[in-house]
Specification:
Elements: H1 13-22, H2 30-50, E1 51-56, E2 59-64, H3 65-68, H4 76-79, H5 82-100, H6 104-108, H7 110-119, H8 122-138, H9 143-153, H10 156-168, H11 170-180, H12 182-201, H13 211-229, H14 233-251, H15 276-299, H16 303-313, H17 316-336, H18 349-380, H19 390-410, H20 422-436
Antiparallel strand pairs: 1-2
Helix pairs in contact: 1-16, 2-5, 2-15, 2-16, 2-17, 5-13, 5-15, 7-10, 7-19, 8-9, 8-20, 9-19, 10-19, 12-13, 13-15, 14-15, 17-18, 19-20
């Protein structure tokens, strides 16, 4: 959050947050940090409400609330806040990349520095589920259940993989921004519209996967604009109006899905791969972000709320990566206790009342996960100077994302004596090492 030497930094996490709050430069845009944390918290809360486990005819079903209760699909307009995450990411990456230009070594290791904070916390998550898959297979658990559980728990790495690839493109996307400015956003948005028109209109589904680049790069480029100009209230209102009109046209005359999250049974998803509906919702969200920036920054100049934001940002990657694993753990505990709380049909009045103890249980379960695994996130923020250069870091990121996507799509189980998808696992782990570990600098006597 702020610069400081190891001797200056207090040891405890609460003390570090308070110290950082006191030593934060006045010019820092504190709203950026709040938006990042709130976006991740909204995703976590949405997932915790989205998964609706229920026992039917003696069998456990991991039903999805959006399919059980279609009216809840409108709530995804609020909880699908990945556009905010990529928008804030663009701002932060622009700031970091501009700072790195002042120092040749920081410029050389910029990608590795950013990737260290994104990649290292994924290692214990992937390893834990690999070990769990191996043990479960030896205990006779079916391959289908292993894949379903691991795939659900590792859903967070899907968007992380996309964000990693957007991050390694920063040197290019920043260069494009310097030459085209907002025109680069318009061109990417037009590209996304063209992909939708061809992919959906002409039934060329393979082309739609390119919208992971067009859609999220467009939002990320807007973050550059925010960093450079500070935004404006007039454009914020224009973004909101444009997003509302765009969304109305898409889900009305053009028949796009209402949900901004994939719904089981629906042929088209607005997120996997993304459609221009994500740009429409993102436009509304970005407009609101810009309108609230001033009041939020003034509020965050108070020590108490700013310390809380810093504290949350110190653990936000761990919260994001482990929150579905906490759901799986809570379901396992409930099943061990005879299926307590899992007999109610999702969407009923009493089921909604039960969400309060459900959410409380998940928060409690997150505590040991954070206590154990937060150290990987915090260690990544104090990485040493032995970092690889741009080419090695980018290649490592590509390998990592290949492994992570394989796991996210198919689960971590596999046929064979080990019962684990070793190719995906090794790609992810080797890629992390390649992207974040370089040769120690030579010393001369």
């Amino acid at each position: 959050m702020v610069d400081g030497t190891a001797s200056e930094m207090p040891k405890g996490i609460l003390a570090r947050a308070r110290w950082a709050a006191v030593n934060t430069p006045e010019k820092r845009n504190r709203a950026v940090d709040l938006y990042r944390a709130v976006a991740i918290c909204f995703v976590v809360l949405g997932h915790w409400l989205l998964v609706a486990p229920v026992i039917r005819n003696g069998d456990l079903e991991l039903s999805i609330l959006l399919a059980e209760q279609p009216w809840t699909q409108f709530a995804t307009w609020l909880f699908q806040v990945m556009p905010v995450f990529f928008f804030v990411g663009g701002y932060s990456n622009a700031l970091s990349w501009a700072s790195a230009q002042k120092d040749s070594e920081k410029r050389r290791t910029w990608a590795a520095t950013r990737l260290t904070r994104l990649l290292k916390p994924t290692v214990p998550l992937v390893l834990l589920w690999a070990v769990a898959a191996f043990i479960a297979g030896r205990m006779g658990v079916s391959r289908e259940l292993i894949d379903a559980a691991s795939q659900a728990a590792l859903v967070p790495i899907w968007f992380l993989a996309v964000y990693i690839m957007i991050t390694v493109c920063v040197p290019v996307s920043a260069w494009v921004w310097q030459r085209l400015g907002l025109l680069s956003v318009a061109l990417l948005a037009l590209g996304a519209i063209a992909v939708d028109a061809i992919g959906l209109g002409l039934d060329q589904g393979w082309l739609r996967w390119s919208n992971y680049g067009f859609v999220w790069l467009a939002v990320h480029q807007l973050g550059y604009w925010w960093k450079e100009t500070g935004g404006s209230k007039g454009l914020a209102v224009a973004f909101i109006a444009l997003g509302i009109a765009w969304l109305y046209l898409l889900i009305g005359p053009f028949g796009y899905p209402v949900s901004m999250v994939s719904v089981p049974g629906e042929e088209v998803s607005n997120t996997r791969p993304p459609t221009t509906a994500m740009l429409a919702v993102g436009s509304i969200q970005i407009g609101l972000v810009l309108l609230l920036e001033g009041p939020i920054n003034r509020w965050l100049h108070r020590p108490a709320p700013w310390s809380l934001v810093i504290l949350l940002n110190q653990m936000i990657m761990s919260v994001y990566l482990w929150h579905i694993t906490a759901v799986i753990a809570l379901i396992g505990i409930a099943m061990t206790l005879g299926g307590v709380g899992l007999s109610l049909e999702p969407g009923t009045g009493i089921w909604w009342l039960q969400r309060l103890p459900w959410l409380f249980g998940l928060v409690v379960l997150m505590i040991p996960f954070l206590a154990i695994f937060m150290r990987f996130e915090n260690a990544s923020r104090t990485a040493g100077s032995a970092l690889p250069g741009q080419a090695q870091a980018v290649f490592g990121a590509i390998l990592t994302c290949a492994g992570l996507v394989m796991i996210a799509l198919n689960g971590i189980g596999a046929d064979g004596p080990v019962g684990v998808n070793l190719i995906a696992l090794l790609l992810a782990l080797f890629g992390v090492g390649l992207a974040t570990i370089g040769r120690a600098p030579k010393t001369t006597v």
